[in-house]
Amino acid sequence: MSFRKNLIAGLATVLIGAGAALVIGAAVQPAAAQAADAPKGDAAAAPAAPVPPPPIADSTKEVVDNPYGPDALWKNGDFVARGTLIILVIMSLGTWYVMLTKFFEQFKLGGQAGEAKKTFWSAGSVSAGIDTLKEGSPFRYIAEQGLGATSKHEGSLTDHLDLNTWVSLAVQRAIDNVQSRLQDGLAFLATVGSTAPFVGLFGTVWGIYHALTAIGIAGQASIDKVAGPVGEALIMTAFGLFVAVPAVLGYNFLVRRNKVAMESVRAFGGDLHLVLLGQTSGKR
Asked: What range does the domain containing 152 cover?
């Protein structure tokens, strides 16, 4: 009987302990679930933090005035620096004016040469051919001079010269005048091309002089004392080269085109000479 009592008491103790464990576990699990779900629920309920927009690039850049540029050279320079700069500007403007006008004149001469080739030689006489050429055309000028020489050969001192020589001199003189007009302005380009670097070098020497003067006054070669004068000197050198290089290139270019243009003028003069001699001998 004692054995049964002990067995029943042990089973009761085990059952009571198991039940207590189940009750405690059931109470702990909801709390743990709530603790585990609480952050997720808060995170889902809380609105998403707004993403800040990317920073907008500042389109306005800070402009720093250059105290040693061309503007400062004009504002702070003395009368020598300003005078040198004005001379270089005048040289540059004159160079471009001459180059553009001479190029247009050569282009126009080429068109007049084609016109003379088409209309003049198809006319019945030299005087009729002259009427087909426009006023101011160098080919009309040569033809008029040659025709005038044939009419002025008789009854004067020119009788001591034969007609061939007299007409040849008149035509050649007209050709030389046309060539001289084509070369107008080329001497200016040659002068600018040879002297502009030295004008800029003069400005360079003047700027170096001011730099040395600033060093002597300050007693030390600090960058703030020599930067302005040295920058002025370098700007003058650059301006001199900027003016000289286009002048030299333009001179060589125009001289070459003048040679090509004069070939057509000389060919026209030679043919005109022969026609005038044949026309005059036919009258006689």
From this structure: 70-283
Residue pLDDT, tens place only, 79-110? 777 888 889 999 999 999 999 999 999 999 98
Burial 188-200 (b: 16+ CB within 10 A, else e): bbeebbebbbebb
Angle at 162 between CA 159 and CA 165, to 5 degrees: 125
Query: How many angstroms from the chain centroid is the CA of residue 88?
Result: 18
Query: pTM to 2 decimals?
Result: 0.66
> What does the pLDDT read at residue 27?
47
For residue 126 the two structure tokens come to 């030299």
Let me know if residue 91 belongs to a domain. Answer: yes
Residue 92 lies in a domain: yes
Q: Please check whether residue 49 lies inside any domain of the structure.
A: no
103 with 200, same domain? Answer: yes
What is the CB neighbour count within 10 angstroms for residue 237?
17
DSSP 183: T
Q: Which two tokens stand for residue 160?
A: 């001591």
Q: Do the Cβ atoms of 56 and 171 come closer than 8 Å?
A: no
Residue 202 makes CB contacts below 8 A (sequence gap 6+) with 84, 236
DSSP state of 159: G
One domain, residues 122 and 196: yes
Straight-line distance from the first to the last Cα atom of the chain, in angstroms, rounded to the nearest whole number: 183
The Cα 122–Cα 129 span in angstroms is 8
Cα–Cα dist 102/245, whole Å: 18
155 and 266 part of one domain: yes
Residue 64 inside a domain? The answer is: no
| Tens of pLDDT, residues 168-207 | 888 999 999 999 998 888 999 999 999 999 998 888 887 7
